[in-house]
Amino acid sequence: xxxxxxxxxxxxxxxxxxxxxxxxxxxxxxxxxxxxxxxxxxxxxxxxxxxxxxxxxxxxxxxxxxxxxxxxxxxxxxxxxxxxxxxxxxxxxxxxxxxxxxxxxxxxxxxxxxxxxxxxxxxxxxxxxxxxxxxxxxxxxxxxxxxxxxxxxxxxxxxxxxxxxxxxxxxxxxxxxxxxxxxxxxxxxxxxxxxxxxxxxxxxxxxxxxxxxxxxxxxxxxxxxxxxxxxxxxxxxxxxxxxxxxxxxxxxxxxxxxxxxxxxxxxxxxxxxxxxxxxxxxxxxxxxxxxxxxxxxxxxxxxxxxxxxxxxxx
Length: 314
What we know:
Layout lengths: L1 H23 L1 H12 L12 H10 L10 H30 L6 H31 L8 H6 L3 H4 L3 H6 L2 H17 L1 H6 L12 H30 L10 H7 L2 H12 L8 H40 L1
Helix pairs in contact: 1-4, 1-14, 2-3, 4-5, 5-9, 9-11, 11-13, 11-14, 12-13
């Protein structure tokens, strides 16, 4: 019972942290996504840098369009983070129980995180695709979630599933780095921790923020070319007019997206928007993990109190 409570506490705090960080940083996320989705030769590019996307929204009086798709993104973030953190905590505890170890090693941690990420992606891919389509739509012309999904086949709703599964390595690397660094910082306290129902240890807000930033920066740099391909695949039919259906279908495949980037932008194109991606994801992840760490204990206490109340009542 204690294992289930701690898994739920981890999942709930992770989901709430994701909701807050997604909302706060959403305009930056929209600018980043629109910038990443554009694949044109240098002299034909509409956006020279991410600030051009922001200026377009301001100059056309569509500032609020920077929030287009926010509801869908928040829904996806909440569901995906709840599933991810619950799965991660559950698989991690199951591994520790079966192995008899007190801590989890880096390799096992990576596998556990990847398994949790794969479960998350399969469930939330349609919402991820829909939010990307809404963000890359022309400012002021984004459709709602239902229209976005109803205008697409089930196959199209899962555009980018393959590369999304590949990108489970991103949160896997991130959370593995974060967890290993956290274990080092809390080594003494973890050594004194006894009993299944003991209160989970938490980092200070500053430590959680810094470890979250470092871990996400490492994961983002290592996986960025795949991140760029994923955005292109999900927004392929939003590209410039005159592109044939065959070209659009080709660009919805991983080889097609890679070829389009190489042909039009060269090898450096695989890292177009990297700075914006690092800025957004590092801030988002750091804020997310900081919030998660600070509310985990509160969530744990509330769940324990609820369990005792239900037990006494029954």
